Amino acid sequence: MRSVALTAAAVCATAVLAGCSQSTAGAPSPAPEPTVSAPGAPQPIPRTRVSLRVPAGFMVDGRMPGLCRAGTSSGVIVVESALHGKTPEQAMEKMAAGLRRRPNPQGLEFDSVDRGTVAGMPAVLATGVQRISDQTFGKTTVAFAAPDAMVIMTGTLQYGDPLPIAELSAVLRDARWGDRAAPGDLGYDIRPAPGYTRMINSAGLSFTLGGRQEMGVPRFVVHRSASDVVLPEESRRQFAEQRFGQMPGSPAVGTINAKAVAGRSAFEITGQSAEKGLTMYAVIVFDGKRYILMSGGFDPAKHPDQLPAFRAMADSLVIK
Questions:
Q1: Averaged over 52-56, what is the pLDDT?
Q2: How much is the average pLDDT of 243-258?
Q3: 126 with 110: CB under 8 angstroms?
Q4: What is the signed CA dihedral for 304, 307, 308, 309, rounded to 10 degrees?
Q5: What is the dihedral of CA 200, 205, 207, 211, to 10 degrees?
C-alpha cells in the first residue's frame, strides 16, 4: 500500500470543497466549529505544528484542519504526517514528481511546480487550477518536510473569490513551524488492533503494523469527508462502491455488506487493487451530512491476513 504520506497528498489534492460551505448543524456528531481570528495574525492550525496568517474573511477551521471562508468552498487543508522512511529531500522530490504528472485524474493543472524552502525547510510550491465538471477552482499546494514529518497544505478558491490565488499561495509559503502540535479533537477515535501503532496524521487517524514507516507495511487510516454528502438511504450502497473504487490503486469491489458502526449506517467492502495485487478493505460510515472512511490495505504475499485486524479497528469506532 502507498505510504500514508502519499495518501495524505491525495487527500489534499482531491479535496475540492475545502471550505466550510455548509453547516453541520443537526448532524448526529457535529464537528468543531470554525473560530474567527484576527486577519493577518499567525494562528496555530489544530492538530499540527503549523501556524498560518489568516486572510481577511477567513477563519481557522479545526474540522479539516485548516482555514475556510464561511459560506463558500474556499479554504485550506493542512495535513501533517510521518515521513515513512524517507529523508526530507526524498519526500519533496517525490511530491514534486507527483504534482508534475499529467494527465491528472482529479482535474488538476499546475502552471508551476517549483522547489524552495518554507520555514527554512525543503519545500515544493505549486499553483494552478482544478476543473471538476463545469466548475474551475483556483488551486495552490505547498509542501515541506521537517526532519520527522511531512506537511502538505492545499488551498482552494472557488470562482469569484476576492482573494487572488497568488495571495493564498503566499500565506502558505509564509507558514511557521512550532515545536508542539496545537490541540484539536477529530470528533472520533478508534482502538488500534494488537500490533498496530498510532502514527502522526493531522487530518485523521493512521495506524501501521509494528509502527513501521516504510512502504509496503499494512496500514489503516480514518478520515472524515471534507464536504457534505447528503444521500437517501437507497443511494448509499452505490456511493460506497464508487468511493471504494476511488481509493489508491482503484480497487475493484469483491464483497460489500451493510452493517451498523457506532450506531450509524455503514457499508463494509473488501476487494483487490490492481496495484501490486493488494487486498483492500474499507468501511464507509454515514454520519449525518458527512461520512467517515476507514480503510486499510496489505500485500497477502508478504503479510498474513490483516482483515480481522482491520475489521476490529473499524468496529471500535467511537463518534463523540
A1: 95
A2: 93
A3: yes
A4: 80
A5: 20
Residue 228 — φ and ψ, nearest 5°? -70, 140
Residue 258 lies in a domain: yes
Alpha-carbon distance of 52 to 139, in angstroms, equals: 17
| Least confident window among 36-45, 65-74, 86-95, 266-275 | 36-45
CATH code of the domain containing 94: 3.40.1000.10
**Are 110 and 206 found together in one domain?**
no
Nearest 5°: the CA angle 82, 88, 92 is 100
Same domain, 227 and 169: no
Report how far residue 208's alpha carbon sits from residue 217's, in angstroms, rounded to the nearest whole number.
Answer: 7
Tell which wins on pLDDT, 134 or 152: 152
> CA 269, 273, 279: angle at the middle one, nearest 5?
60
The answer to whether residues 150 and 202 belong to one domain is no
User: Do 173 and 254 fall into the same domain?
Assistant: no
Q: Evaluate whether 289 touches 260 at the Cβ level (below 8 Å).
A: no
Q: Mean of the per-residue pLDDT values for the chain?
A: 86
